[in-house]
Amino acid sequence: xxxxxxxxxxxxxxxxxxxxxxxxxxxxxxxxxxxxxxxxxxxxxxxxxxxxxxxxxxxxxxxxxxxxxxxxxxxxxxxxxxxxxxxxxxxxxxxxxxxxxxxxxxxxxxxxxxxxxxxxxxxxxxxxxxxxxxxxxxxxxxxxxxxxxxxxxxxxxxxxxxxxxxxxxxxxxxxxxxxxxxxxxxxxxxxxxxxxxxxxxxxxxxxxxxxxxxxxxxxxxxxxxxxxxxxxxxxxxxxxxxxxxxxxxxxxxxxxxxxxxxxxxxxxxxxxxxxxxxxxxxxxxxxxxxxxxxxxxxxx
Amino acid sequence: xxxxxxxxxxxxxxxxxxxxxxxxxxxxxxxxxxxxxxxxxxxxxxxxxxxxxxxxxxxxxxxxxxxxxxxxxxxxxxxxxxxxxxxxxxxxxxxxxxxxxxxxxxxxxxxxxxxxxxxxxxxxxxxxxxxxxxxxxxxxxxxxxxxxxxxxxxxxxxxxxxxxxxxxxxxxxxxxxxxxxxxxxxxxxxxxxxxxxxxxxxxxxxxxxxxxxxxxxxxxxxxxxxxxxxxxxxxxxxxx
Lengths: 300, 240
Hints:
The complex is a heterodimer. By secondary structure, chain A is mostly helical. Chain A has eleven helices and four strands; from the N terminus they run ααααβββααααβααα. Chain B has a domain at 3-88 and 157-235: P-loop containing nucleotide triphosphate hydrolases (Rossmann fold, 3-Layer(aba) Sandwich), CATH 3.40.50. In chain B, 37% of the residues lie in helices and 26% in strands. Chain B contains nine helices and ten strands. A six-stranded mixed beta sheet of chain B has the order 6-7-8-3-9-10, sandwiched between helices. In chain B, strand 4 and strand 5 (66-67) form a beta hairpin. The mean pLDDT of chain B is 92.
């Protein structure tokens, strides 16, 4: 009984680690632009499809496929930024400045999502393609508990990426600019920080982190489908909302909680209750703690 | 004395509404120049236009003779103009030290930046005590000091200050104006927007009155028209 609980938690941590990567990318873009990017997941899917296509036509190693997934996600992400977000940026000025349309940006990102889905289904029409698995190694066992190697790799990568991101934001010059833009874009511009350049770089960084997650997810499941786009957007958005919109520690906490809860509910209630439990958690949090588990302190 | 800043026939508009309707003025090298005017006259719009945040529709802005009209704020900062914005706008979740780093964002000289931060701490002792503290926890006066120090970190030739005394207690206002005087003695030219006309005219060498997007009066403090200017700065011109 207790053993099941522990085993599920272990399984959930692996999934939670990939959700954490997704949520970090989502949160970064939200923090800098104050916009939800619905095309976040679909851009990652495009990267994963580029890697899948490569693996079908060329003998490519896992690292090469990871690089293609990340590179493809970044390119698709920059396309989304240009098309959906650059035209609707807030412009600083007296008072609140000129506000860009958040709705127009979100709707545009939805349109590009559809565009990406259509593009991949036209180029690769089968519903499901095999993705080279991360490893053929059997799960590691710790006494009665088992841990999939994929989960361990995902956890390790998530910790590394998280630490790297923390360093970049809190110890590097780039981080000063990013946090200044997140907190007060007008003041950042007045300090000589190029706000739109910082936004584009953050977009690229977020897409890269999402791409890493996308590769790990595809290689763990050993397959890609066009649903990967919606799936990654949903997981990233859910984890971000549970953790507290705009908060990076919240994104990680929300993601881990989401992963563990999914694993537990799948085991105890059955797979059909897995997503239901996740949405119930979100519902409960929105009622009881609307700003999430670890809310961002200075969100505008 | 040559003009450090020269604004000619500047028109800046929000959509169809012209907030500046042909503003011309000069800031002399090494001077404190003050811009007075009632709310909505276009003072902040002028500051944001000079700082490159707003793009003027017509007219020109020159710094030491170089045309900087329509350049972005990053480029304007690089050329030596820094704006201390109205309401201070410090980065509340960043430490005092990080706020200063942000002000020096365009500079590459690490050692120079550290030395300048040390100089800021010497000039504004409360900031040294709170170097590692988040700026959002500072008092209004301390935040104003931080906003000034952040602007100075870019080593500007011209410091623009938009309502530095806004919302501060009288003693703190005295302190802020003492700092303005000190900066001037250190050779920084200052262009100051102030609601507090009495205080501003005490330190200024030259002033302009702006009403409804136009410069309507300019002169030196102590001239006969001072009382009339102060009245109009507070109340606006009689009927619109």
